[in-house]
Design a protein that fits this description.
The chain is 76% helix and 0% strand. It has eleven helices and no strands. α10 runs antiparallel to α11. 28% of the residues are buried.
Length: 212
Protein backbone atom coordinates (compact mmCIF):
# COMPACT_ATOMS: atom_id res chain seq x y z
CA UNK A 1 0.00 0.00 0.00
CA UNK A 2 1.30 3.45 -0.90
CA UNK A 3 2.54 5.39 2.12
CA UNK A 4 0.83 8.68 2.85
CA UNK A 5 1.96 11.35 5.29
CA UNK A 6 1.89 15.11 5.69
CA UNK A 7 5.69 15.13 5.42
CA UNK A 8 5.64 13.34 2.07
CA UNK A 9 2.90 15.63 0.75
CA UNK A 10 4.85 18.73 1.77
CA UNK A 11 8.01 17.39 0.15
CA UNK A 12 6.16 16.64 -3.10
CA UNK A 13 4.68 20.14 -3.28
CA UNK A 14 8.08 21.69 -2.62
CA UNK A 15 9.69 19.46 -5.28
CA UNK A 16 7.20 20.20 -8.07
CA UNK A 17 8.74 23.57 -9.12
CA UNK A 18 12.06 21.81 -9.74
CA UNK A 19 10.71 18.91 -11.80
CA UNK A 20 10.39 20.69 -15.19
CA UNK A 21 14.15 21.34 -15.13
CA UNK A 22 15.53 18.35 -13.20
CA UNK A 23 12.85 15.73 -13.81
CA UNK A 24 11.60 13.34 -11.12
CA UNK A 25 15.06 12.92 -9.61
CA UNK A 26 16.60 12.88 -6.17
CA UNK A 27 18.27 16.17 -7.12
CA UNK A 28 14.85 17.80 -7.58
CA UNK A 29 13.65 16.25 -4.32
CA UNK A 30 16.69 17.50 -2.40
CA UNK A 31 16.13 20.99 -3.81
CA UNK A 32 12.52 20.86 -2.63
CA UNK A 33 13.56 19.66 0.81
CA UNK A 34 16.15 22.43 1.04
CA UNK A 35 13.37 24.96 0.47
CA UNK A 36 11.61 23.41 3.47
CA UNK A 37 14.77 23.58 5.57
CA UNK A 38 15.18 19.80 5.57
CA UNK A 39 18.57 18.04 5.26
CA UNK A 40 19.39 16.14 2.01
CA UNK A 41 19.35 12.72 3.71
CA UNK A 42 15.63 13.16 4.37
CA UNK A 43 15.06 12.36 0.69
CA UNK A 44 15.79 8.64 1.05
CA UNK A 45 13.93 8.41 4.32
CA UNK A 46 10.74 9.85 2.82
CA UNK A 47 10.97 8.13 -0.58
CA UNK A 48 13.00 4.93 -0.23
CA UNK A 49 11.76 3.81 -3.65
CA UNK A 50 13.53 6.71 -5.34
CA UNK A 51 12.16 8.75 -8.26
CA UNK A 52 9.41 6.27 -9.20
CA UNK A 53 8.18 6.28 -5.60
CA UNK A 54 8.22 10.10 -5.68
CA UNK A 55 6.25 10.33 -8.93
CA UNK A 56 3.72 7.70 -7.84
CA UNK A 57 3.19 9.57 -4.58
CA UNK A 58 2.56 12.81 -6.50
CA UNK A 59 -0.07 11.12 -8.66
CA UNK A 60 -1.76 9.83 -5.52
CA UNK A 61 -1.67 13.33 -4.01
CA UNK A 62 -3.22 14.73 -7.20
CA UNK A 63 -6.01 12.14 -6.94
CA UNK A 64 -6.77 13.20 -3.39
CA UNK A 65 -6.70 16.88 -4.36
CA UNK A 66 -9.16 16.16 -7.18
CA UNK A 67 -11.60 14.45 -4.79
CA UNK A 68 -11.31 17.34 -2.36
CA UNK A 69 -11.86 19.91 -5.11
CA UNK A 70 -14.83 17.96 -6.47
CA UNK A 71 -16.65 18.23 -3.14
CA UNK A 72 -16.27 22.02 -2.93
CA UNK A 73 -16.86 25.15 -5.02
CA UNK A 74 -14.42 23.93 -7.67
CA UNK A 75 -16.63 20.91 -8.22
CA UNK A 76 -19.68 23.09 -8.73
CA UNK A 77 -17.78 25.17 -11.28
CA UNK A 78 -16.85 21.92 -13.02
CA UNK A 79 -20.53 21.10 -13.40
CA UNK A 80 -20.80 18.54 -10.61
CA UNK A 81 -24.22 19.65 -9.46
CA UNK A 82 -27.09 17.41 -8.45
CA UNK A 83 -29.11 15.50 -11.02
CA UNK A 84 -26.24 14.49 -13.29
CA UNK A 85 -26.08 10.95 -14.63
CA UNK A 86 -23.04 8.80 -13.93
CA UNK A 87 -21.42 9.38 -17.34
CA UNK A 88 -21.84 13.15 -17.01
CA UNK A 89 -20.29 13.08 -13.52
CA UNK A 90 -17.34 11.04 -14.76
CA UNK A 91 -16.85 13.44 -17.66
CA UNK A 92 -16.89 16.45 -15.31
CA UNK A 93 -14.41 14.77 -12.97
CA UNK A 94 -11.94 13.90 -15.73
CA UNK A 95 -12.19 17.50 -16.95
CA UNK A 96 -11.53 18.72 -13.40
CA UNK A 97 -8.56 16.36 -13.04
CA UNK A 98 -7.03 17.74 -16.23
CA UNK A 99 -7.66 21.34 -15.19
CA UNK A 100 -5.86 20.75 -11.89
CA UNK A 101 -2.98 19.12 -13.77
CA UNK A 102 -2.63 22.01 -16.22
CA UNK A 103 0.06 23.90 -14.24
CA UNK A 104 2.04 20.66 -13.99
CA UNK A 105 1.81 19.36 -17.56
CA UNK A 106 5.59 19.15 -17.91
CA UNK A 107 5.89 17.34 -14.58
CA UNK A 108 3.40 14.74 -15.81
CA UNK A 109 5.24 14.39 -19.11
CA UNK A 110 8.51 13.87 -17.24
CA UNK A 111 6.90 11.29 -14.99
CA UNK A 112 5.47 9.24 -17.83
CA UNK A 113 8.87 9.33 -19.54
CA UNK A 114 10.44 8.09 -16.30
CA UNK A 115 8.07 5.12 -16.17
CA UNK A 116 8.62 4.30 -19.84
CA UNK A 117 12.41 4.53 -19.64
CA UNK A 118 12.57 2.49 -16.47
CA UNK A 119 10.23 -0.24 -17.65
CA UNK A 120 7.71 0.29 -14.86
CA UNK A 121 4.40 -1.24 -16.07
CA UNK A 122 3.45 -2.12 -12.50
CA UNK A 123 3.77 1.46 -11.28
CA UNK A 124 1.89 2.76 -14.33
CA UNK A 125 -0.95 0.32 -13.69
CA UNK A 126 -1.14 1.23 -10.01
CA UNK A 127 -1.20 4.95 -10.78
CA UNK A 128 -3.99 4.57 -13.34
CA UNK A 129 -6.01 2.28 -11.06
CA UNK A 130 -5.85 4.76 -8.18
CA UNK A 131 -6.94 7.64 -10.39
CA UNK A 132 -9.85 5.65 -11.79
CA UNK A 133 -10.93 4.60 -8.30
CA UNK A 134 -10.79 8.25 -7.18
CA UNK A 135 -12.94 9.32 -10.13
CA UNK A 136 -15.52 6.60 -9.48
CA UNK A 137 -15.55 7.39 -5.77
CA UNK A 138 -16.02 11.12 -6.39
CA UNK A 139 -18.75 10.29 -8.91
CA UNK A 140 -20.64 8.41 -6.21
CA UNK A 141 -20.38 5.00 -7.86
CA UNK A 142 -20.42 2.28 -5.20
CA UNK A 143 -21.13 -0.85 -7.26
CA UNK A 144 -19.53 -3.99 -5.82
CA UNK A 145 -20.67 -6.59 -8.36
CA UNK A 146 -18.89 -7.73 -11.52
CA UNK A 147 -19.57 -4.34 -13.12
CA UNK A 148 -17.06 -2.87 -10.64
CA UNK A 149 -14.28 -4.50 -12.63
CA UNK A 150 -15.64 -3.87 -16.11
CA UNK A 151 -16.42 -0.20 -15.41
CA UNK A 152 -12.99 0.48 -13.97
CA UNK A 153 -11.19 -1.36 -16.75
CA UNK A 154 -13.14 0.61 -19.36
CA UNK A 155 -12.54 3.95 -17.65
CA UNK A 156 -8.84 3.15 -17.17
CA UNK A 157 -8.42 2.71 -20.93
CA UNK A 158 -10.40 5.89 -21.66
CA UNK A 159 -8.54 7.96 -19.07
CA UNK A 160 -5.09 6.77 -20.20
CA UNK A 161 -5.87 7.58 -23.85
CA UNK A 162 -7.35 10.96 -22.89
CA UNK A 163 -4.31 11.85 -20.80
CA UNK A 164 -1.91 11.11 -23.67
CA UNK A 165 -4.08 13.16 -26.03
CA UNK A 166 -4.15 16.04 -23.54
CA UNK A 167 -0.35 16.18 -23.31
CA UNK A 168 -0.20 17.37 -26.94
CA UNK A 169 -3.40 19.41 -26.94
CA UNK A 170 -2.90 23.12 -27.60
CA UNK A 171 -6.58 24.06 -27.76
CA UNK A 172 -7.97 26.67 -25.41
CA UNK A 173 -9.57 25.22 -22.31
CA UNK A 174 -8.65 21.67 -23.37
CA UNK A 175 -11.55 21.76 -25.85
CA UNK A 176 -10.03 19.21 -28.23
CA UNK A 177 -9.25 16.83 -25.37
CA UNK A 178 -12.76 17.09 -23.97
CA UNK A 179 -14.22 16.38 -27.42
CA UNK A 180 -11.93 13.33 -27.59
CA UNK A 181 -13.16 12.26 -24.14
CA UNK A 182 -16.80 12.72 -25.18
CA UNK A 183 -16.31 10.40 -28.16
CA UNK A 184 -14.77 7.72 -25.97
CA UNK A 185 -17.50 7.99 -23.34
CA UNK A 186 -20.18 7.84 -26.03
CA UNK A 187 -18.66 4.63 -27.32
CA UNK A 188 -18.60 3.20 -23.81
CA UNK A 189 -22.27 4.11 -23.26
CA UNK A 190 -23.24 2.50 -26.57
CA UNK A 191 -21.38 -0.67 -25.59
CA UNK A 192 -23.16 -0.68 -22.23
CA UNK A 193 -26.55 -0.43 -23.91
CA UNK A 194 -25.66 -3.24 -26.31
CA UNK A 195 -24.52 -5.45 -23.44
CA UNK A 196 -27.74 -4.82 -21.51
CA UNK A 197 -29.85 -5.57 -24.60
CA UNK A 198 -27.99 -8.81 -25.27
CA UNK A 199 -28.30 -9.85 -21.62
CA UNK A 200 -32.01 -9.09 -21.65
CA UNK A 201 -32.54 -11.04 -24.89
CA UNK A 202 -30.60 -14.01 -23.55
CA UNK A 203 -32.70 -13.92 -20.40
CA UNK A 204 -35.92 -14.00 -22.39
CA UNK A 205 -34.70 -16.93 -24.48
CA UNK A 206 -33.69 -18.81 -21.34
CA UNK A 207 -37.10 -18.22 -19.73
CA UNK A 208 -38.90 -19.37 -22.89
CA UNK A 209 -36.85 -22.55 -23.05
CA UNK A 210 -37.63 -23.31 -19.41
CA UNK A 211 -41.33 -22.71 -20.01
CA UNK A 212 -41.41 -24.97 -23.10
Amino acid sequence: MLERSAERDAAIRATLPHVPLDGWTMRALRAGLAALGEPPETARNLFPGGPVDLFEAWCDLADREMEQAASGPEGLRAGLGEGLGLTARVRALVALRLRLLRPHREALRRGLALLAAGGQPGAAARITARTVDSIWHAAGERATDFSWYTKRASLAAIYAATLLYWLTDQSEGDEATLAFLDRRLAGLAAFGRLRRNVSSACGRVFRLRRAA
